Amino acid sequence: MSGLDIRNEWHALTSDNIAALPAQLGVYEIADEAGTTLKIGYAGGHSLFGMRSVLEEELAEHGEVTFRHEFTHGYLTRWNELLMVHHASHGELPPGNHDHNQPLGTLSPGTQNTPQQNGAN
How buried is 105 (Cβ within 10 angstroms: 0-12 exposed, 13-18 middle, 19+ buried)? Predict the structure, then answer.
């Protein structure tokens, strides 16, 4: 499932690293020092300064943990995809997403479309 994860490097969640980001829309993942995902979130149209605003809120809530991000205008679709990937890999959502009350789709990482599955010989 790692092919669907955010591929950018992890960085310390600090005010300096946040300030270096452009004010753009996208998705992010925060993790503790052990690498356990704490939350998958997004910076959407209501985020005053995009990624910078939401990560400053995460810094205030979690302290200096790590984060990685991805800029995209399709942030809601990508956010849901990342939640599905995490759920498929871990059997549950990250702790910071337990209040997610929207239905998620299902990913089947082991399933591939082979000629036999398509009815071709």
Answer: exposed
